[in-house]
């Protein structure tokens, strides 16, 4: 839904 | 090889029940420190992080790193074949095709043996930074579940606002609005009802209730739940288990209008 961010913005892939 | 014996099958049953609607296929990463799992939901909004430390098991043996790729639906089907009080033992070879589960009744002479076929799962792994959260709220897990359920009837989202000594759950929906405030509360007689709010600065964040309601399926694992919040970072919802084991959920915030 609108405004929902995803975790990729906060946690980096390792 | 892996050999891990749990005194009570119910722990694993509850963990899988709690996460299986959020993630479908995941790797159970086994090494000498225990069994860990990290998986994101399909939309990459929520993340499950489970750690069952080796001390949770007795005995626990795992000489090498073994990834057990398991479909949680299949896992749940097999775990339902165990009684809650059964002793559960997980076994796998070093390069396994299957994971074996043995359920033993402590009262009867019954031994049940099941295998689950493993899958190759190419899973993204995220690094979660150590965070000093601005607000940490510990409250009864049942209370948190009720708040999330109640508010989800009114709205898709909840704002969690933590300030000195109080935390407020606020929602605005089409039919009306709702707000629940909790204050620090401690009782010697009923410690299970305690609410503790630790705060270094005020926090206000908005989250999707659909995910929070899902996380609350873990309420049966622990009488209390910990909510950790900082502005502009994902919410951490933690259920602590015995022996420093845990089931954690992370949820990315929503941005305001």
What does this protein structure show overall?
The complex is a heterodimer of chains A (14) and B (257). In chain A, 0% of the residues lie in helices and 14% in strands. Chain A has no helices and one strand. Chain A has one strand at residues 12-13. Chain A has 14 residues and is mainly β. Chain B is mostly beta strands and 257 residues long. Chain B is globular and about 55 Å long. The model of chain B has no long low-confidence stretch (mean pLDDT 96). Chains A and B meet through strand 1 of A and strand 10 of B.
Q: How would you summarize the topology of this molecule?
A:
The complex is a heterodimer of chains A (14) and B (257).
Chain A: E1 12-13
Chain B: E1 2-6, H1 10-19, E2 25-31, E3 34-40, E4 46-53, E5 60-62, E6 66-71, H2 72-79, E7 87-92, E8 98-104, E9 111-117, E10 126-127, E11 135-140, H3 141-152, E12 157-163, E13 166-172, E14 177-183, E15 196-199, E16 203-208, H4 209-215, E17 224-229, E18 235-240, E19 246-251
Antiparallel strand pairs in B: 1-5, 1-7, 2-3, 2-6, 3-4, 4-19, 7-8, 8-9, 11-15, 11-17, 12-13, 12-16, 13-14, 17-18, 18-19
Helix pairs in contact in B: 1-2, 3-4
Helix content of chain A: under 10%
**Average residue pLDDT of chain A:** 89
Q: Biggest sheet of chain B: strands side by side, in what order?
A: 6-2-3-4-19-18-17-11-15
Helix content of chain B: 10-25%
Amount of beta strand of chain B: 35-45%
Order of helices and strands of chain A: E
Q: DSSP helix count of chain B?
A: 4
Q: Which value, in Å, is the CA radius of gyration of chain A?
A: 9 Å
Biggest interface and its residues per chain? A-B, 13 and 24 residues
Beginning-to-end CA distance, first to last residue of chain B: 53 Å
Topology order of chain B in helix (H) and strand (E) letters: EHEEEEEHEEEEEHEEEEEHEEE
Secondary-structure-derived class of chain A = mainly beta
Q: Low-confidence segments of chain B, ≥5 residues, pLDDT <50?
A: none
Strand element count of chain A: 1
Range of strand content of chain A:
5-15%
The overall pLDDT average of chain B reads 96
Gross morphology of chain B = globular
Largest sheet of chain B: 9 strands, antiparallel
Q: Major sheet of chain A: size, sense and barrel closure?
A: none
